[in-house]
């Protein structure tokens, strides 16, 4: 288990719910999701519609960042393969000459 997960487990109420969802009974995951939906509903009731807009914009930025990270990782991986292939091809051409 990573240090980040252990840190989240130590948060008083949220950590207890999260720990139970991860290590608890099989149906604890569904109760955790239900609790999150209930908390979101209460927050929307208290704060209003702007909360949903802020959450949607935040999630859009997070998803776009994840897409960028995933595609950039593939690009970096291809560059290292190309560099190795170029180095071996250059070495082979140098041996012929």
UniProtKB/TrEMBL annotation:
<keyword id="KW-0812">Transmembrane</keyword>
<feature type="transmembrane region" description="Helical">
    <location>
        <begin position="30"/>
        <end position="47"/>
    </location>
</feature>
<protein>
    <submittedName>
        <fullName>Uncharacterized protein</fullName>
    </submittedName>
</protein>
<keyword id="KW-1133">Transmembrane helix</keyword>
<keyword id="KW-0472">Membrane</keyword>
<feature type="transmembrane region" description="Helical">
    <location>
        <begin position="53"/>
        <end position="76"/>
    </location>
</feature>
